[in-house]
Structures are given as C-alpha cells and as structure tokens.
Amino acid sequence: MSINELKKSDFYYDLPQELIAQDPLEDRSSSRLLVLNKKTGEFKHEHFSNIINYLHKGDCLVLNNTKVIPARLIGTRVVKTDGNDVLNGKKWVGQLPKECAVEVFLLKRLEADLWETIVKPGKKLREGATVSFGNGELTGVIEEVKPDGNRLVRFKFEGIFEEVLDRLGEMPLPPYITHELKDRNRYQTVYAKHEGSVAAPTAGLHFTQELLDKIKQAGIDIAEVTLHVGLGTFRPVKEDNILDHHMHSEFYIVDREAADKINNCKKNGGRVICVGTTSCRTIESASDDNGVVHPGSADTEIFIYPGYRFKVLDCLITNFHLPESTLIMLVSALAGRENVLAAYEEAVKERYRFFSFGDAMFLTDEI
Q1: Which one, of 363, 289, 298, 366, lies nearest residue 327 by Cα?
Q2: Which helix (H) or strand (E) holds 227?
C-alpha cells in the first residue's frame, strides 16, 4: 500500500468501552506492558516495572518534562448595567442557574494575561463579553473571536496568575475519562517541571522516581525535553485521506544538555528511546537530515505516519491510542501498521487497559 492510498479507516480497531481506563492504578509502575518487536511483529506480555530489563547500558531515555496546568475554568457570563451585575441579561440574586455557567478552556498563553481559549457556549461569549470565576477572584474579557472559533481572553486578577489558576481551575482530563480525578498529581509525571500543557504526556505516567533511579544506576542516560501538549492531540482525523489532515501546532524546547546526551548516545552506538509520542515529535522536529539534534525552541506541526523515516528515535514507550488517531499512525510508522494492529488486537483480547490511564507498549528492536 502506497502512502497516497492510506486512509483513516486503515487505522481503525474495535475497542470495547469497558477497556478504557477511568482511574490511574495505585502504583504507577504496576501497569501491564506489551513488548513489541517493531521489525518482526513478535510480542511479549510484561509488567511495566520490568521495563529496565529491556534497556541497555549506553541507551538514552528521552522524557518530556512538561507540566499540565488546571486549564478548565467554570464561570458565569457577566454584563454590567447601571452598576449592577447582570447574568444573561437579567439581574440575578442567589444561586446561579445552570444555563448561566460557561466554560473557558485555556489553550495557549500569548502574553502574561492573554490566552487563546476554547469557550462554551460560544454563541453567548462574543467580543467584549466578560466572564467571572470564583466570585470575581478572576475575570476574563473576550478580546477577539478567531476564524476557527477560539477566543482570545484577557484576564484580570490580583497576585500571581498560576496561583489563582491552581485554586480555581480543574485538570483538563480527556473526554473519554468520566470519573472524577481525586488526586490531580496522578495526571502529572513524577518529573513534570515546566507548566504549559493541557494534556499529560501519558506514557510517562508509568514511571516512579524509584524506577528512574534504577535506570540511571544501570548506565542508561536520561535526557529531558519539553513539549507543551495541546488539545489538538485529541482532535480526530476527519479527512478520509490522512494526507489531507492538518496537524495541530505545539511548542517545544530542547536545551544543550539534552541535545548533547542524545547525540552522544547515537555517536556511541546506543539507542534513543522516547517516552511518549510527544518526546518523539520533539526530537524528530529538532533534528537535521543527518539525525543530529540541535538545541532550540520552536512550534512544530510534524505529522508522522507510515512512510516516515525516523532520524533519531530508535525505540518508543507509549500507551495504547484511540482508533484512527494521529498517535496510532505515528506508532504504525515505527513498527508497521499490520504489526501494530495485530498487537492492539492481542491487547484487547488480553483485556489491557487503554488510553491515558491505561497500560503501555514498548516498541523495540528485540525481545
């Protein structure tokens, strides 16, 4: 099958609803691990805590140290009339009716107090509209409605925005997770540092600090990069021909230390093993045609699908992804569509847990 003939439906698989993990496991590293030989399609069932047995001295593990912000804000639409706060055109006293509630979802910070957002309901939040959060502790004014429907919102607050957001915001769990998250730290990796993501790099959720320490002691280097995951990671591919899909943009940073670690690993014959598709997209975006990773920062719209030639990445640790998503296309580019779909079929058969809080795969060159 040629690249031009690849259809969205070529990446579909049947997934029973009950296999979508709704809650994280108590022990991060106790999830299951399907080890897949990316060349032969051979697979093996493991536990994630044993991932160290498949890593070798001289390898380099690449982590995405982005941190998820509580990007979901629930507030009320407010209009000033004769000095009175009016909600949806009527003066209101007491508890607000549900229809007054609006949601503002933070996507990207443009200035200190200006964010690109998604709002619901959009029809009632046009330019000039004001939204109040937390009894006025935070307010936002719609400054611009973009052609794609996103809004630019200017926020007003006292103190430090991150602290206000931490009090008022909710973690932006994916739409397929319906359970309430009791501990918001469980939607963060243990190595999360730089705030800016609206979704977690979920492959990293399986690592504990103890496991990372063991990996370092075994002579495996660890390089940290940053890619702030956007909501577009959940955006479905709508076009039947996947080449017509427009990939979302995400901001990444690769510092000198990380670039040197990755380049030295390749130079010395080690394997570069990315933890998650976001780490993969970062180093592939930051590298030249010779596979040399360069330090720097930029926005990337890289779309990886079968036929792509990986310049840096050798192996990948990742979760199980949605049918027909750009993420399963990336995994298929590394291990082959047939191998990946066969492995997914096996995971369904063996009742693996899927998606963000689910189990993991290791796409490697040996078992």
Answers
A1: 363
A2: strand 221-227
* Mean pLDDT score across all residues of the chain: 92
278 sits in the region (left: phi over 0; alpha: psi -120 to 50; else beta) called alpha
Q: Do 84 and 63 share a structural domain?
A: no
Residue 85 has pLDDT above 70, yes or no: no
Helices (H), 180-299: 209-217, 256-267, 277-285
Give the C-alpha separation, 281 to 270, whole Å: 19
> The tokens of 278 are what?
């976001």
Distance (Å, whole) CA 99 – CA 120? 11
Question: Is 163 domain-assigned?
Answer: yes
Buried b (16+ CB within 10 A) or exposed e, 15-36: beeebbbbebbeebbebbbbbb
Task: Looking at the structure, tell me whether residues 254 and 289 fall in a common domain.
Answer: yes
Per residue in 239-264, pLDDT (tens digit) is 999 999 989 899 999 999 999 999 99
Q: In 293-324, which positions are buried (b, 16+ CB within 10 angstroms) versus exposed (e)? A: beeeeeebeebbbbebebbbbbbbbbbbbbeb
Distances (CA, A) of 40 to 55, 172, 260, 294: 19, 38, 31, 32
Model confidence pTM above 0.85: yes
Residue 13 lies in a domain: yes
The answer as to whether 176 is a domain residue is no
Beta bridge partners of 317: 275, 362
What φ, ψ does residue 333 adopt, rounded to 5°?
-65, -30
The CATH number for 95's domain is: 2.40.10.240
Structural domain boundaries, residue 124: 72-168
Model confidence at 80, pLDDT cuts 50, 70, 90, reads low
Q: What angle do CA 334, 226, 290 make, to 5 degrees?
A: 50
- Number of domains within the chain: 2
Q: What is the pLDDT of residues 217-228, one digit of tens each?
A: 999 999 999 999
The pairing of beta strand 360-364 with beta strand 315-319: antiparallel
